[in-house]
Every structure is written in C-alpha cells, then in structure tokens.
Write a structure and sequence with these properties.
Protein name: Acetyltransferase (GNAT) domain-containing protein
Number of helices: 5
CATH superfamily: Gcn5-related N-acetyltransferase (GNAT)
Strand order of the largest sheet: 1-2-3-4-5-6-8-7
Number of strands: 8
Distance between the termini: 23 Å
Pfam families: Acetyltransf_1 (PF00583)
Structural class: alpha+beta
Keywords: Acyltransferase, Transferase
GO molecular function: acyltransferase activity, transferring groups other than amino-acyl groups
Order of helices and strands: EEHHHEEEHEHEE
CATH class: Alpha Beta
Strand content: 35-45%
Number of domains: 1
InterPro entries: Acyl_CoA_acyltransferase, Bact_Acetyltransf, GNAT_dom
Length: 165
C-alpha cells in the first residue's frame, strides 16, 4: 500500500480487490457521465458507461487495477492491461467528479508509472476523446503524445502513447 499526500488530505493508493468491484463500477458511471460530450451538447454513450460489473471483476482478476481512496471511499481508479510484450494499455482512468482538478489523477497516474517501471514496461498507450480540451491538456501534461485519430466510436478520439523507462 502506498500513501499519497496532498496539502490538506492523506489519500491511499493500493491494488484494487474483488470486493472493490461495485464501488469501482459506480465510480466509472459518475466519472464518465460527461465524457465525450460534444460542443453542441450531444452526449456520446461510450463503452465505460455500458460496462457491466462482471467486466470490472474480470479486470480485477486479470489486470493491474489501482485505486485511490479517501478513507474508506474509492475516489479514483485506473486499469493497466498488458497488450503485448512491454506495452500496456491504460483504461478506465477515472476520478470522482467531487475530487477532480485537485491533482489526484496525476498522483494516481504517477503510482501507475512506478508500477510499470517495476514491470519493465516500455510503452503505455490509451484511447481518449479529442473533443474535451481539458482532457487533451491533461494527457499532454502526463507526457503522452497523440499518434493517430479516428471516429469509430461516434466521436473523435486519439491513440495516445507515452514512453516508460
């Protein structure tokens, strides 16, 4: 278990457990509610909002799932899936709306990078909406570069890659 400390609060980062599945599932619904909202107000229902509880449990069993807690409440989570040798996919990266814009996503992400370094990973990639300028800025700030874009999910999204070493 790792402890992350902000100016005011103490947060705990740890590996997710099966008993966390329902809380992580609820967090996903809350955090992704406005994801990929278009400028005209149209909302795209993405795969995170359609994700079933069983898929969360499957990730907890097969992949690295990190959670950040404030006391007993999970306030952020992310998942790391090895997709080929030394290459990982970051998915379902979410921070509770009540805790956003406080540096907690960055804090959790740094714990994930440390974990990936221990796993001798070389690359981390993710897919994200390109219609949210704040999200684009966030991923660029974490060291990701957008390599390609597509519209296959009903909105413009990018494939972002970060070198880990």
């Amino acid at each position: 278990m790792m402890t992350a400390v902000s100016r005011k609060n103490k947060y705990t980062c740890r590996q997710g457990k099966l008993v966390d599945a329902e809380e992580i599932h609820i967090l996903m619904q809350q955090a992704f509610a406005d994801y990929a909202k278009k400028d005209d107000g149209e909302k795209v229902i993405n795969s995170a909002l359609r994700e079933e509880l069983e898929a969360v449990k499957a990730d907890l069993n097969r992949n690295t799932v990190l959670v950040l807690s404030d006391g007993d409440q999970i306030i952020a989570s992310l998942r790391l899936e090895e997709i080929s040798e030394k290459r990982y996919l970051l998915k379902r990266f979410a921070v509770s709306p009540d805790y956003q814009n406080q540096g907690l996503g960055t804090m959790l992400f740094q714990q994930a990078v440390d974990k990936l370094k221990n796993l001798d990973a070389h690359y981390l990639q993710l897919y994200s909406s390109l219609e949210d300028k704040k999200l684009i800025s966030f991923y660029r700030g974490l060291g990701f570069n957008c390599l390609e874009t597509d519209h296959s999910k009903g909105y413009e999204r990018g494939l972002w890659v970060k070198t880990i070493k």
